[in-house]
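To the wet lab folks,

You asked to see what we're planning to order before we commit. Fair enough. Below is the target structure as tokens, and below that is the sequence we designed to fit it. If anything looks off to you, flag it before the synthesis order goes out.
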């Protein structure tokens, strides 16, 4: 597995876990603020922070198709 594919897999997995945790937190909070609901909210925030730290500062891949052509004189 290449490094790029590994990072893509990690990013996708972390995103899916993050979305699932957010949905569970909302479901638990609908029943009231309980210690379990607060734990899930904190874990969701932790996952979000990890995601931003790992992937927020990574430069986007640019390809020739994304490049803006230079203006003609």
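Sequence we intend to order:
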């Amino acid at each position: 597995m290449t490094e790029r594919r590994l990072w893509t897999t990690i990013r996708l997995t972390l995103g899916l876990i993050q979305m699932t945790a957010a949905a569970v937190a909302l479901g638990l909070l609908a029943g009231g603020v309980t210690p379990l609901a607060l734990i899930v909210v904190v874990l969701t925030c932790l996952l979000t922070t990890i995601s931003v730290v790992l992937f927020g500062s990574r430069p986007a891949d640019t390809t020739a198709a994304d490049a803006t052509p230079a203006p003609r004189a």
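Structural context that might help your review: Residues 3-54 form one domain. The helical segments are 3-30, 35-55.

Thanks,
Computational group
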